[in-house]
Structure formats: structure tokens, C-alpha cells
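Issue 218. Parser rejects a valid record. Input:
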Amino acid sequence: MKLPLAASLARFVSIACGMSIVVLACGRDGGGDRGVDEAEVPPVAEVAPMPDDAFADSARANMVDTRGVGIGAVILTAVGEGVTLRGALIGLPPGEHGFHIHETGSCEPPAFESAGDHLGAGEAAHGFDAPGGPHAGDLRNLMVAEDSTATVEQVAAGVSLSDGGVELLDDDGAAIVIHAQPDDYATQPSGASGDRIACGVIEG
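Output the parser choked on:
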């Protein structure tokens, strides 16, 4: 039985916390400390996998931080105007962060340079406010709450999973990348959004 999207995501985060796989946000003491002692997180920890049949005709990106530790997942679903992105993330620095789809399905920590440039970087300027923009992979900034959690709910217009045009599941794939700073939607080539702090390969 396929679960409604919100229920599936809630179940996913609950499982991850319950198994102590991800401790970046689970069990925070509320003391305002945004950091996490690396000794508390197994370096090979991975996010709990989503069931293969949980989201029909969709794809997902299991997100990891610069240590390769799982921090949640983003589910991508084809819609008429492009692809929706929905997910739940934990363990991120509070504030606003650049959030993009990159051109290569590879996430090698800690720098995630293997993800390449933004999707469509060679065909348009970067940024929603830039003349000739945006890139196909440009998304709105991700807002992370004070408890280091974030909810993803966006639409990437003009892309598809595998139905032609700018495809996310083509031969070299694509990845979702979170940056350290907010995207200003204008500066080339990536909105002055700084280092890459999390990444997830989009998999069908």
C-alpha cells in the first residue's frame, strides 16, 4: 500500500531517529548548541532507506553531509510543470542556504565537487534575478529552522525525471546540493552561496 507523502516522510524521519542512525537532530537538549560532536556520529552512518515502492513513478535523493552522514531524503515526483521536490532534513546549520540541482549524479565528500556545476549552467545565466537566468537546476533557498531541521517543498520547472528535455535521470544523473550561504539569485556562477555542505544523488 502506498502511503500519503506526508505520512511516508514522517515515518521515515521517525525510523531514522528511533534507530539512532542520525543523531544530529534527534535528542537535542535544546541548549542552543548548533554544533555536533563528531564522536557522537558514526562516520559510516547512513540514512534509513526509503521503501522501493513508497513513491511510484518518482525518484529520491538520500542526502549526506560533508562527513558522509545521512541527514534525510528528498523525494522528486514528475508533475505537469516540471518536478516537485519534497522532503525532511535534519542536522543542518540554521538559516538560509543555497539549494540547487547539479549536473552529475555523484556526491563525494567532503567538498562534493564530483556533482559538477548547476544543471543547465552552460545554457543560461545563474539566478532568478539575473538577465538570461535561471539555470534549469536553480531552486529557491532552503530555510533551516533553529532546531536544524528543514522541510523541502519546491517545484523545479522545466526539468523532467526521464521524459525528455533536461532530464535528471539521464546517463550521468544529477544531484541535489545544499550550500553554506544563501543564494543571492544573481551572482555568477552560483549566487555567492559558498561551500557545498550536503549532497544527494538523485536515483530512480
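Fixed in the parser; the record now loads. The chain has one domain: 5-203.
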